[in-house]
Input
Amino acid sequence: MKHRLAAAALASVPVVLVVMIAISSSQVQTPFAPHRTQNKSGLDEAVHRSVTTADIAMPDPRMMAAPISPPLSPPPPPRGAASAALNIPPANLAVSLPQIAYRYSYGFTLDPRSLADVQQSQADMCERLGPATCRIIAMVHSGDDDGRGTGSLDLAVAASRARSFGSELAQQVASAGGTQAASSISGEDVSKQIVDTEARLRARTILRDRLMEVLTSRRGTVTELVEAERGVAQVNEEIDQARSWLAEMKGRVDFSAIHIDYNPVAAAIRREEKSSFMGPIRSVVGALGGIFGMTFAALIGVLALLAPFAALGWAGRKLWLRWRPLAAEPAAA
Output
């Protein structure tokens, strides 16, 4: 009986060894698989097996020796693609143009007989354009009966029309036989004055509105209300003054000033004097007047030089006359 139990035990040893080998191989193939245990409170917890360096595969030395190339950078976007992707609108900056008041000046020389007619025709041309384009500010003509006179004309012309209007004036004078002797253009930048006046006007308007609110609500003492009413009157006066200044400066910008001088031609005057009967007489009389004037001027100069000496001589003669009788009395005695 003992021999049979020993034989059975020896026969079961290989089976036990095979089962143990199978269990150990399954545990080695799944090193990271957790197995379940139960703690004292009855809750399950995951327990991981420790990992050794034997469980980690070593990398290939050839892979370690190969250099690692950096990642390729993407190509740059085309020009304008970023702004197009972001839908950035173009910047529209408001640029304030300078406010310049221009002044034009012309000088024309004309035949004395046509000077007044040309001046009148240019004034009529301004009136035909209408007050929205041209306005007559002043017109002066002076001269004698024979037509030898001078004149001037002041106009206010729309700024966009001033240059071309000046060219038309020169053409009209040239058609009348005259010439353009002088011309000039000057400008004054009034941008700062306009901006400052507008800012002052806005500030005074806000102050006036606040004072009116105080008067309307009747909040405050009688003295404060009286002071507010005086302040409203003063601020209204300043507002009216600022508005008049602003309108004047804007008018100077919108309408350019044109000043025209009309002068007779000197050669024409000389030809007229030579050809007329009164021309030589007038020239001689003018020359005589100059001669007489120079003569009187010379006499006045001589008298001014001799006056001190004449005074000294007169005083000496008086003294001598007084001294002579006194000297004669001792001699007679």
